[in-house]
Structures are given as structure tokens and as C-alpha cells.
Design a protein that fits this description.
heterotrimer; A alpha/beta; B mainly alpha; C mainly alpha; A: Rossmann fold; 2 domains; six-stranded mixed β-sheet; 11 helices; B: mainly alpha; ABC transporter involved in vitamin B12 uptake, BtuC; two-stranded antiparallel sheet; about 70% helix
């Protein structure tokens, strides 16, 4: 009997071995440029990942329809990481197997830190639409389309310093790199004369009664969190926080007015945010993007993450095109590292881009983006 | 693990087959990797498999041989990952990010986890079955929450601990060496006099105590060794990541390890090894094959496959069916030797089971 | 005053835990299995409420539909996944329950298109004000429902024929079978009651925090399981006591700034301490082990 077990064991291990070795044996025809992106396509933050996947796909389709880059098409590989950094390594390796040339990194911040470390070893250029931690662009192959957290925090603090308030409330998610990053920088840049009342939550907590109890007397509450907990907070705070109060968020608030089942007009307080994308725009590149996206995928997942990803694909395309026009030899047979050097030279060399999330966007060699922030009122009081 | 052939001098090859297979797999890929023919997805998969094997076989020792249900294995792994990661981050500056740093951090991470294993072994002396299960689950969650909320300078706080990633592609070789060490220790322990003492505690604690077996000592021993290897797996994990976050070590992770143990057949270390390999492989493949819009199907497939396997393997009503269609009858022709009754995959159900004190 | 607010909030969330814990404890007592998927039944109830509300149904209809659906679902899961394994190794049953939990979560994820809809219509707004002191209607409702459920269940178990049959089955299944009790029917009824309670708990959670995610039930499920163990698993009054104790500890720990981030650790530490002092939980029966 034991012998059978052992033989089965041997067979299984051999099968596993074979399966592993055949897993990626398909030879790749390198006739396209492969763009990789990893994001939460499932799970709690999937709204962002799906928006990025859809928008990037839309941009890729448009570029391909227009003939690609000198006739060579683009291809998007979008993998799911469920906002879990430990899944990124697998995704990254799988993208490399698929011949990734250039990447949009990860959609959310924690996983993107992992992606940054991985991509450095192979020198893969990436331009992330939405992973905003300062550390994401620590390496020279990484660039951001969104504002860095530190930047958002200090811009938000500057805005609050100008409001002449005595006390403000802060509500943040203490186990999230995005929320904590903005919070830290915000606190550092806030005038000492302003007192703060702070409340935080962790994980998937949904009952905020204790936090609301702490913040109920604040007339201004800064909430550097994503929109799902924010809308939850607002619903629960109705009738407890004064109707004349203001909720102020960063780019995580984006999409709050189209959140499923959440009617923002039923919230009496003022809701405003700091952003780089006006989701109510009707003209310009932003308006164009909104129309096209809504036609194709509906309004549910329309948010700035998508707009930003759309811009990322076009920025990469434009930079490649500019380099090709300048005489650089670009082909799908080149390695990611070779393409990275060319793109880095472009991005550090005064390349500008205008898209749905801003005009005349420039990049610092550190990877941070230079563009206008829009202080955007989602909803007035009442 | 019965021993047949009393006093036989002949080497019992079947006791070593798992080492041989694992060694062969590792050697095969080492050659591939040294000649530069290995893909990144393969090394990363091999690392994950190695970590899973260490976790599953060390938990298998507690669940299958000591007969206690532990749902806090990820907690020990978490301790190993953070402590080992911290040590390697400090040492990497002075000693360089090499083998020496790795060995030291593996030992420190493992020992730290082992200490906690001993502490959690103490309630195991008093608690039975599901009560112990929830205590170990609670322990894992406490470890995770506390590590996350300690000051940032210590373990990186909520943003996670930055650890030096092992930059070359040979980490899986070290991982497989550790797998061999882990299996050697566990198997030698279980096949010794101590191992028989441990299984006797599982089968009947009071009877074991009555025959003079030091139950306290053995329970603590098993928990400590099991935690040690979970800690080792944690350190390895920290080497595959550049940023370790405690949120990854929640009770769901412990459950995933338990799933491997149960699928492999309770009381079979080889079963745990196979199941760890297959479950990890399944997970990674589902994650990379189901891209884009299909990603939502990952968990659905995973759950369905698990339910079907468990029902097929364990349902009393399917016994006849199971005997008709099993590994033996399907692959039977591959083996020339005629084998004796009992289907191998029924070993899960056939193994003695004593995890709920209520039933005894 | 802050302490009092925390206490009342704690009683209310403790009531929700207690109702979920009842489901765990009854199923454990009678079917001798840990139904890990119990927390996810709560979430499925939320999905049903969501679909009724999306079809412009009123909240009351939504709650009713959720209760009915959860009862059917609970019984179906028992018949399809757990019943074939009756008599198999207990760990195999546990793993099936865990897989069932994954399955329900992924089905809900597909149904919700990975979204996190807000069920604003379920939210109970407003509060009773006594000076500066304030109690939400949702808190009062939760407390009221908890008391009603507890009393009704106690009476049911004590005085109805089915209820007493349930006690008999949990004491000794084989003896109950010999006495002519249809144990299969009793197990089905237990799953039905547990699932109905889960749906009600789902409503109580959503009327406070109306955001539906596919992991809505996971953490509350685990905590309720812990509560059931604190009280002594298998014991109905124990589940109530454990749930309320856990809720109060959680809320008070949340209201103390230093402890707030460690709340989960505090809750689980309480569990461990209680079990070290009383290994079978507060109201659990100590069983003598025999050779």
C-alpha cells in the first residue's frame, strides 16, 4: 500500500515538474508591443482596477485602429492582484513571459511598491496611472501620472492652512499606504496653530459609529481615503456631523458621485476634493474621454484612475513615436531595458503631454509629475 | 508510517523517495537556471511551492500526527517574516545581501517563531479540538495586528517592512535545500520513538499519559518545531518580497495551509508535499491564465475544485465509486507491480481522526 | 458620557454578534460541525436585499426576501455539501465549509460585478436625544431585535416539540435517533433557523453601515465564532453572552485612543484569557474525558 502512495507521489511530482517546465514554453511571436498592468480586477478595490483595464484597453484599441506605431500594434496584458502585494511577483513574471516591453505598473499603491522593486531588476519602464506613494518612483525607471502622496498631502495642507480654521478633523485608514502617506505629509505641512481631531480605521471595518462620535463636532473633516469607506462614513454621519460641515478628500474620492446606490445629493454636507481630473467635464480631452468611456463601458466605473491610465498609454505611445521620429530605432524585438533607456531619455528630456488629466504635463527626472491640481467641489452644501 | 521488514539491513528506498524526487526537481531546475534557461515565472513559482511545502508539512505534523487543529500557522510565519526580514535588512548593510545574511536571518526568524510556538503550545495542554483552533486563530490575528501597529521604526508599521529582495534568481535553490532540511527533521522525528509517542497522544491522550509518555513535553515539542519551520518559511517569503505587509498573514492564509494538509491526506507528510505543490500551482495558474474580465472566475474555480475533491475523497456514500475510479485504477497500468487494496487518496479519510475532542 | 456611548454602541454591535453566534452554536451543537460559511450567508442576504431594492422593492420586502432566500440557501448547502460528508472525518467537513465560504464569496463577487454598492434605503436614520446624549434608532432596533430573537429562541428550544428534539439531538444523536427523532429533519431545521438569523443579522449590519461587499460577513463571522466559543460553543445562552461581551469590549477598546489600533488584538486576547481560565467557555459544559 505504501508503495502505491510513493509511486503516486513520484508521478505527481513528475507531473508537476513537467507542468512547470511546459508552462511557458510557447515561443513568442514578437510582432506587437506588450504593455503590462496589474491591478485589483476583483475584490474591494476592483472599481479602480477595472477602470484602468478598460481605459487602457480603449487607448490601445484606438492606437491600433489608427495604425499603431509605424504599423506595429500594441497589446495590453491586464492581470489581477486583488490589491495584494504578494500576488504581484507572479503577475510580473507572467508579464515578462509574455514579452512585456513597457508597463503601467500597478493600479494601487501597496502592490506597486513591489512592482517597482521587481521592474528595477529588469529595467522595465513604467508609468503608473494611480499608485501615488513617493517611494513608487524611487527608482529611475518609474514615473507617475498621478500626484505623489506627499505632494497631495502638502497641497491639501496648504489649502486648509488658508481656510482660517481652529480645529479640523482627520479620518484616515491607518493600514493603507495611500491614506497613511497623505496623512503623514498633511500633518507635517499643516500649521501648528490648527488643532486636529483624528480617527482612523483598519481593514474592512464598516461600522464607523465610534469614529463619528469622535469627529462629530468638527466643521471640516479631511478624509484621505478611497470613496467606498468615504461614502459609508458620510451615510453614517448624517444627522451627527453638522450639516454645514465640509468633507475634503484627495483623488481617492474620485468616482464617489457615481458609486452604486449612493446618492450624494442626499448628503447635506459639502463634499470637495483635490484632483487632476474633472469628472464633470463636457469639453476638452477630459470631456472626450468621458463620452467615449461611458459609451463603451457605462458610467459605473468611470473615474480618474481610468482617465489617468488612458493618458498613460497615450503618453507612452507619444514618447515612443517622438523617439522614433527623432531617429531612434524602435521595434518589438528590442528588450524592455533598451526601450526603457529610450523612454527615460524622452521623459527626462522635456517631453510634454496633454490629455484627459491635464495639459502640458511634464515629468521631473525623479519620476514625479508636474501638472495643475484642480480643487474640485463635488457637491455644495444642502 | 509502518515499518516492515524487521532488522532488514537493506536500505528502505521508499523512505527516501520524497527526498530523491524533490532533489531531482531542484537539481533539474538548478541546471536550467545555471545555464540561463529558466523563466522568471518558473523561479517565482518554485519559490512559492517551496514555501508552501515547508508550511504544509510543518502544519501537517501538528494536525496529522499530534491531532490538534491549528489555525494560526500564518501567525508564526508572520513572526518569521518580520523578524527575519528585519535582521536581514540590518545585516545586508554590513555583511552584504548574501548567503551568510540569509542563513543568520533564517535561524533568527525560525527561533523567534519557535519561541512563540512554545507559548501557544501551553494552552494546547489545556484545550481540545475547536477550542484550540479558535485560540490559534486568535493568536495569529493578534500577532498580525500588533506587528502592524507597532511604531514604524520597528517593523515598518502599516506600510510594511522593507526587506532586501534576494536579487539573483537562485533563491529557489536555497528554498529547496530548506525544504529538504525541513522534511528530514520532521520525518526523522516522526519515525523515531518520539514520533510514536506523538501519534499515541493523538490516538488516546489519557492512555498515552498512563503509559508514562510525557504528554506536555511532546505537545510543546511538536508546536515548537512546527512553528520554527513556519518561521523559516516566513523568512523565505520576506526574501521574495521587497516589502512585507502583515495584512497578508491573516487567518485566510492559515486556512489555505490547512487546506493543503487536508487535501494531501491527514497524517501523510508526502501527501502534504503533493497537495502544497498542486494547490500553489493551481492558484498561480488561475491567477495568470484568467486575465482581464475572466479574473472574477479565479476564486469560483478554486472553491469548486476544492469542494469536489473533498467530497470525492471523503464522502462515505461515494466509497464504491471511489474504489472503482481512483489513481490506482487509472494509473494502475503504469505500475507493473500489483499493489494491495486501499486507494491512496482515501488515506485522508482512513487516517485516524481525533480532532474534535467531543467525539471521543 | 463617552464611556456610556461606547457601552451602548457595544451592546448594539454585540447583539449582532450574538445573533450570528447563535447560528454557529446551534449548528455546532447539532451537526457537530463548524459552519465556516455561516458568515457568508449574511453577505448573501445582503445581496438579495440589494437585488430587491434595485428592482424598486421596498425595504421590508427586501428583508423578507433575504430571510426566505437564506433559509433555502442554508438548507441547500447542507443537503448538497455537508450531508454527503456526514460520518466522514471532521476536518474534511471543515474544509468543505471553508470552500463553501470561498464559493459564496466568489459568486457574490461576480453578481456584484466586484462593486461595493451602498444600500442607502436600508439605512435607519435619526436618533433619540436626551440632552447631549444620543442613541441611534439603528442601535435601539438592534437591541430590540436581539432581545426578541433571544427570548423567542429560548422559548422555542424549551417548550416546542421540535426545540426539545433539537436539544436531544445535540446531547446524543444516536440515542435521539433511537427515540424516534428524525435527526435529518432536525439538522435541516437547525440550518434553516441559523440562516434566517444570519439574514436578520445582515440587515442589522446594513442598517448601520449600508455598504455591501462580498466579504461583508467574513470578519463578523469569525468574531461571532469567537463569541460562541467564549460563551461555550453549543450553548445558546452562551452565544448571547459571548456576543454581547465581545461587542462591548470592541466598542470600549475602540473609544480609547491608545488601544484603538489594537482593538482586534484586545478582542482576541480576551478570548484566549477566558479560554485559559475556563477551557470550555463561560457557560460551556465541562466534559470529563474517559478512556
Amino acid at each position: 500500500m505504501k508503495r502505491t502512495i510513493i509511486k503516486v507521489f513520484a508521478v505527481c511530482m513528475c507531473l508537476a515538474l513537467l507542468a512547470v517546465s511546459f508552462a511557458g514554453c510557447k515561443k513568442l511571436e514578437k510582432d506587437t508591443y506588450v504593455i503590462g498592468v496589474s491591478g485589483p480586477l476583483t475584490g474591494g478595490n476592483s472599481g479602480y482596477g477595472v477602470a484602468v483595464k478598460n481605459s487602457a484597453q480603449m487607448a490601445v484599441d484606438e492606437i491600433n485602429e489608427a495604425g499603431g506605431l509605424d504599423g506595429v500594434k500594441f497589446e495590453l496584458v491586464a492581470l489581477d492582484d486583488q490589491h495584494d502585494a504578494s500576488k504581484v511577483e507572479t503577475n510580473y513574471a507572467s508579464m515578462m513571459d509574455k514579452g512585456m516591453h513597457v508597463a503601467l505598473g500597478c493600479v494601487t499603491t501597496n502592490p506597486c511598491l513591489e512592482f517597482a522593486a521587481l521592474s528595477k531588476t529588469d529595467n522595465v519602464f513604467f508609468l503608473t496611472p494611480s499608485a501615488s506613494a513617493n517611494d513608487v518612483v524611487k527608482e529611475d525607471n518609474a514615473y507617475q501620472m498621478c500626484f505623489a502622496d506627499g505632494n497631495q498631502g502638502s497641497v491639501a495642507a496648504k489649502y486648509v492652512n488658508g481656510l482660517e480654521l481652529d480645529t479640523i478633523g482627520i479620518f484616515y485608514k491607518s493600514d493603507d499606504a495611500y491614506s497613511k502617506g497623505i496623512y503623514d505629509q498633511f500633518k507635517a505641512s499643516l500649521d501648528d496653530s490648527i488643532d486636529t481631531v483624528e480617527a482612523s480605521f483598519v481593514g474592512d471595518a464598516t461600522d464607523f459609529s465610534t469614529q463619528i462620535e469622535a469627529l462629530k463636532d468638527c466643521s471640516f473633516i479631511f478624509m484621505p481615503i478611497y470613496y467606498t469607506p468615504a461614502s459609508n462614513f458620510m451615510l453614517q454621519a448624517k444627522g451627527k456631523v453638522a450639516d454645514t460641515a465640509t468633507y475634503y478628500g484627495c483623488d481617492g474620492f474620485d468616482g464617489i458621485e457615481s458609486a452604486d446606490g449612493f446618492d450624494i445629493s442626499a448628503i447635506p454636507q459639502k463634499v470637495s476634493m483635490l484632483s487632476h481630473f474633472n469628472s464633470k467635464a463636457t469639453d476638452g480631452k477630459a470631456g472626450e474621454f468621458i463620452t467615449k468611456y461611458t459609451e463603451k463601458y457605462g458610467k459605473d466605473t468611470l473615474n480618474q484612475f481610468g482617465a489617468s491610465a488612458y493618458d498613460c498609454v497615450y503618453a507612452i505611445y507619444n514618447a515612443m513615436k517622438a523617439a522614433a521620429d527623432a531617429g531612434e530605432d524602435i521595434s518589438p524585438n528590442m528588450t524592455a531595458s533598451e526601450l526603457c533607456e529610450i523612454l527615460k531619455a524622452q521623459f527626462n528630456g522635456g517631453f510634454t503631454f496633454s490629455g484627459a488629466t491635464g495639459t502640458n504635463i511634464k515629468w521631473q527626472s525623479s519620476g514625479y509629475v508636474d501638472k495643475e491640481a484642480i480643487a474640485f467641489v463635488i457637491k455644495e452644501q444642502g | 508510517m509502518s515499518r516492515n521488514g524487521i532488522g532488514a539491513k537493506k536500505i528502505q528506498w521508499k523512505y527516501y523517495i520524497n527526498y530523491i524526487v524533490i532533489f531531482a526537481v531542484a537539481a533539474f531546475y538548478t541546471v536550467l537556471s545555471l545555464t540561463g534557461n529558466i523563466k522568471q515565472s518558473e523561479t517565482s513559482l518554485l519559490e512559492k511551492i517551496a514555501i508552501a511545502i515547508i508550511l504544509a508539512s510543518s502544519l501537517g505534523m501538528v494536525v496529522g500526527f499530534l491531532g490538534e487543529l491549528s489555525l494560526g500557522h500564518a501567525g508564526f510565519m508572520c513572526i518569521g517574516a518580520f523578524l527575519g526580514g528585519k535582521v536581514s535588512a540590518i545585516l545586508a548593510e554590513s555583511l552584504g545581501n548574501g548567503i551568510l545574511t540569509l542563513v543568520i536571518s533564517v535561524i533568527i526568524g525560525g527561533v523567534a517563531a519557535a519561541l512563540f510556538g512554545m507559548i501557544i503550545g501551553l494552552p494546547a495542554l489545556r484545550l481540545r479540538g475547536d477550542y484550540l483552533a479558535i485560540v490559534t486563530l486568535a493568536f495569529g490575528e493578534i500577532v498580525r495586528t500588533v506587528i502592524m501597529n507597532l511604531p514604524e521604526g520597528l517593523f515598518g508599521g502599516t506600510l510594511g517592512l522593507k526587506t532586501p529582495r534576494f536579487n539573483n534568481k537562485h533563491l529557489f535553490i536555497i528554498a529547496f535545500i530548506l525544504v529538504l532540511v525541513c522534511i528530514a527533521v520532521i520525518q526523522n522525528l516522526l519515525r523515531s520513538r518520539h514520533g510514536r509517542a506523538i501519534t499515541s497522544i493523538r490516538d488516546n491522550e489519557i492512555a498515552a499519559r498512563a503509559t508514562g509518555i510525557d504528554v506536555t513535553k511532546y505537545k510543546l515539542l511538536v508546536f515548537t518545531i512546527s512553528a520554527f519551520f513556519a518561521g523559516v518559511a516566513g523568512v523565505l517569503y520576506s526574501y521574495t518580497q521587497s516589502n512585507v505587509q502583515s495584512t497578508n498573514f491573516d487567518y485566510n492564509y492559515s486556512i489555505e495551509i490547512l487546506v493543503m494538509v487536508v487535501l494531501g491526506g491527514i497524517g501523510s507528510i508526502n501527501g502534504s508535499i503533493i497537495a502544497a505543490t498542486l494547490v500553489t500551482f493551481l492558484n498561480v495558474k488561475l491567477q495568470t491564465i484568467l486575465t482581464g474580465d475572466l479574473a472574477v472566475l479565479q476564486n469560483l474555480f478554486y472553491a469548486l475544485i476544492l469542494i469536489l475533491i473533498v467530497i470525492y475523497n471523503n464522502a462515505p456514500g461515494l466509497k464504491g465509486f471511489r474504489e472503482k475510479y481512483n489513481f490506482k485504477s487509472i494509473f494502475g497500468k503504469i505500475f507493473k507491480r500489483k499493489s494491495v487494496a486501499e486507494a491512496p487518496n482515501a488515506s485522508g479519510g482512513a487516517a485516524p481522526e481525533n480532532n474534535q475532542g467531543e467525539e471521543n | 458620557m463617552d464611556f456610556l456611548t461606547a457601552l451602548i454602541n457595544g451592546l448594539s454591535s454585540g447583539g449582532t454578534y450574538a445573533i450570528i453566534a447563535l447560528g454557529y452554536t446551534m449548528v455546532y451543537g447539532i451537526a457537530k460541525m463548524l459552519n465556516f460559511a455561516h458568515g457568508d450567508i449574511i453577505m448573501i442576504g445582503g445581496c438579495v436585499m440589494y437585488s430587491v431594492l434595485s428592482a424598486k422593492g421596498n425595504p421590508l420586502l427586501a428583508i423578507l426576501a433575504a430571510v426566505v432566500f437564506c433559509v433555502v440557501l442554508g438548507v441547500t448547502i447542507e443537503k448538497l455539501a455537508y450531508k454527503p460528508l456526514r460520518g466522514a472525518a471532521s476536518l474534511a467537513v471543515l474544509i468543505t465549509a471553508i470552500s463553501m465560504s470561498y464559493l459564496l464569496q466568489s459568486v457574490a463577487q461576480i453578481y456584484l460585478k466586484s462593486g461595493t454598492p451602498a444600500l442607502s434605503a436600508l439605512r435607519l436614520e435619526g436618533s433619540v436625544n436626551i440632552g447631549s446624549f444620543r442613541i441611534d434608532y439603528s442601535t435601539i432596533l438592534t437591541l430590540a431585535v436581539t432581545i426578541v430573537v433571544m427570548v423567542a429562541l429560548s422559548l422555542f428550544v424549551k417548550y416546542s416539540k421540535t426545540g426539545r428534539a433539537m436539544v436531544a439531538v445535540s446531547e446524543d444523536r444516536d440515542a435521539a435517533l433511537l427515540m424516534g427523532i428524525n435527526t435529518n429533519f432536525i439538522i435541516t431545521i437547525t440550518f434553516a433557523i441559523g440562516s434566517a438569523l444570519a439574514a436578520i443579522a445582515g440587515y442589522l449590519m446594513l442598517c448601520k453601515a449600508p455598504i455591501l461587499t462580498n466579504t461583508l460577513g467574513s470578519m463578523p463571522g469569525i468574531k461571532a465564532f469567537a463569541a460562541a466559543v467564549i460563551g461555550g460553543i453549543g450553548s445558546i445562552p452562551g452565544a448571547m453572552l459571548g456576543g454581547i461581551l465581545l461587542g462591548v469590549v470592541e466598542s470600549i477598546s475602540y473609544s480609547i485612543p491608545v488601544l484603538a489600533p489594537f482593538t482586534e488584538a484586545v478582542e482576541f486576547s480576551i478570548l484566549i484569557i477566558i479560554l485559559l481560565v475556563r477551557p470550555s467557555g463561560i457557560l460551556g459544559k465541562m466534559r470529563r474525558e474517559k478512556v
